Amino acid sequence: MATASPSWHRDIDGIVIYKGKRGDFMPLQPDHYHNFYEIFCLLSGKCRFLLRDQVYELEKGDLVFIAPGELHHSLYYPGIHCEMADILFKKEFLYQDIIGEPHSFMGCIPSLYQEEYLELLSHMLSESANLDEYSGGFITCYLQQLLLFLARHSIMHQEETELVHVRDADIQLATRYIYQNFRKPLTLEEVAGVASLSPTYFSKKFKQVTGMGYKEYLNYVRLKHAQTALLTTSNTITDIALEYGFNDSNYFKDLFKKVYGRSPREYRKAPDGA
Q1: Which domains are assigned to the chain?
Q2: Per-residue pLDDT averaged across 211-231, rounded?
Q3: How, if at all, do strands 2-3 and 15-22 pair?
């Protein structure tokens, strides 16, 4: 079933596509990761986009492909309004025989293919109004066509584009340092030192650039690795908590349940919520 909705979802049924406008006047999204795929397409304006441990500068024609469970967040400049299209879909709608299961990436649509790309988005948005009983089928076809388009023109395999503006390179260093050292008992002072900033200014700038607090980001990185360990190892929950940077297993259990809606033990038994 294909639907259109301007709201944010923890889960979806089928394919969701919508078009909207965002800017510095918009409240921050409450959810930073989810269990379905997303294609964020910037149609006008410019913004920043946090994806895992990297911050990208997006301009008109750029897109971000987000795999399930990946940390991401869009951030907007004062006075600049952006128009965007968002496509959300489950794994079963991937054209896996040809493109497999793609990882998250940021892509730039070459000017030569912009018209074809925008036409595909236009078709999907038009059908999202559920014109008739065939709209769902058309949206599914257009989504697969878009995925093939991204694969054919090597947009899924582009080299890393220019990251966050050089004035924010200090925060880029910090996010990468966190990703590389999350198992250690990191402190705000240590990570701020990596960015060569005072702890107070670092906290403020980290929030401005990434849209997340330092501690919130660190906990996300640790939780994602712990989540994987719950499903791929037989280690105890306490051992997993300690291995991935949580020095208090009860705090880990409480935080895990707050984020995932289930305790680590419940998640290990039924990761799909069944």
Answers
A1: 2-157 (2.60.120.280), 213-269 (1.10.10.60)
A2: 89
A3: parallel
